[in-house]
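Appendix B. Chain record.
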Amino acid sequence: MSSRLPVVSGRQLVRLLESLGYDFIRQRGSHIRMRKDTPLGEHSITIPVHREVATGTLNDILNQVGLWNNVPKEQLIDTIRGL
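Structure tokens predicted for this chain:
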């Protein structure tokens, strides 16, 4: 059974990615681009820096980060709740 997604801000997502080793590349408007070299290759992702990230967007970001870093989505959800 999948965990219910928490309501998070874009800044919380940026902190989560920084804790996983992602580097800030650039910001354009309200979106931040981050990058990390993973065993699967270079992963770049764009994070919307909004007060609340939409549920579908959060789900997609967590799925991508989980796949590229070989981390279960539930573990990412638990980590983001602790931030």
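Further analysis of this model is presented in Appendix C.
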